[in-house]
């Protein structure tokens, strides 16, 4: 089985394993420095859109990504050649990082502006406060658990505001704004998943009817259905992301999207995907 591995896939496996060993046992600070931040984070650096791809959040994170590369990568490299395979792999990973960090940055900017706008209102009303709550519910619902925020909202909605409401609501919003700004700067994205999901998409499009055997459960499935399942699962997981779920599902979707756009362009130029 290991004899089928292709040169570029082998090189990527070695590089990712070496970087993991370096970050885990020799230079642990390299992960914090090279991981991708939101584009409006104080700690964002342009090179992070590349370096984050080779950093991982633990052995099993590394293993799952490299297993996907090992399974789906060699056949694509055989068809495309090493150079085109590497270009595709890197483009999917970088594109996923740019889309994810960019969209996340815009979202955090929107939330931050909403919080700051409320603090600048001279005499905020309960309706103004409700608008802030609605923004948090849509984009940062974990911050609704700060203090007695919901109780405060309903308590003062009945009273119609007042000077006490203005002072306490501004203090609450200030606390949320500070916590949100700090969390934004701590945001990290690591892993080759964006590139790997681009690889999975390409495999499903080039070899749609190839039978694959799942590990769990051990049943055969065509490649095109596997891609559909992965795409649907990541989308639904991203939309309904649960507390404690640290997987960047939309980065996976972004990798597939970038991969699709690349393959579409190649097909337009050459009449096929290769």
**In whole angstroms, how far apart are the ends?**
25 Å
- Percentage of residues assigned to helices: over 70%
What is the number of beta strands?
2
CATH superfamily of the largest domain: Rhomboid-like
Tally of helical runs: 11
Query: pLDDT below 50 for ≥5 consecutive residues: which ranges?
Result: none
Identify the strand order in the major beta sheet: 1-2
Share of β-strand residues: under 5%
Specify the overall morphology. Answer: elongated
Overview of the structural elements:
The protein is mainly α and 274 residues long. 70% of the residues lie in helices and 2% in strands. A two-stranded antiparallel ribbon has the order 1-2. A hairpin with a 6-residue loop joins β1 (211-213) and β2. The model has no long low-confidence stretch (mean pLDDT 84). The chain crosses the membrane at residues 12-30, 50-73, 85-103, 187-207, 214-235, 247-263. Belongs to the peptidase S54 family.
Task: Produce the secondary structure layout.
Elements: H1 7-26, H2 29-34, H3 48-51, H4 59-80, H5 82-120, H6 126-139, H7 149-159, H8 163-186, H9 193-206, E1 211-213, E2 220-222, H10 223-239, H11 249-270
Antiparallel strand pairs: 1-2
Helix pairs in contact: 1-4, 4-5, 4-9, 5-6, 5-8, 5-9, 5-11, 9-10, 9-11, 10-11
């Amino acid at each position: 089985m290991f004899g089928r591995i292709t040169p570029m896939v082998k090189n990527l496996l070695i590089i990712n394993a070496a970087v993991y060993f370096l970050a885990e046992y020799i230079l642990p600070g390299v992960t914090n420095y090279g991981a991708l931040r939101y584009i409006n984070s104080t700690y964002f650096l342009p090179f992070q859109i590349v370096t984050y791809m080779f950093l991982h959040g633990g052995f099993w994170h590394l293993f799952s990504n490299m297993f996907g590369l090992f399974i789906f990568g060699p056949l694509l490299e055989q068809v495309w050649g090493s150079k085109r395979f590497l270009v595709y792999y890197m483009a999917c990973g970088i594109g996923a990082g740019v889309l994810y960090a960019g969209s996340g940055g815009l979202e955090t900017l929107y939330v931050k502006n909403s919080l700051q706008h409320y603090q600048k209102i001279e005499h905020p009303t309960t309706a103004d406060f409700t608008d802030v709550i609605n923004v948090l519910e849509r984009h940062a619902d974990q911050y609704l658990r700060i203090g007695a925020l919901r109780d405060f909202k309903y308590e003062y909605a009945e009273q119609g505001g007042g000077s006490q409401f203005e002072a306490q609501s501004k203090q609450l919003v200030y606390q949320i704004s500070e916590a949100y700004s700090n969390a934004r700067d701590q945001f990290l994205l690591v892993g080759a998943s964006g590139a790997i999901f681009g690889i999975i998409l390409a495999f499903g499009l080039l070899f749609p009817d190839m039978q694959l055997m799942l590990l769990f459960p051990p049943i055969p499935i065509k490649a095109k259905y596997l891609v559909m399942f992965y795409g649907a699962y990541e989308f639904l997981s991203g939309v309904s992301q649960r507390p404690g779920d640290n997987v960047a599902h939309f980065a996976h979707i972004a990798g597939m999207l970038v991969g699709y756009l690349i393959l579409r362009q190649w097909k337009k130029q050459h009449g096929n995907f290769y």
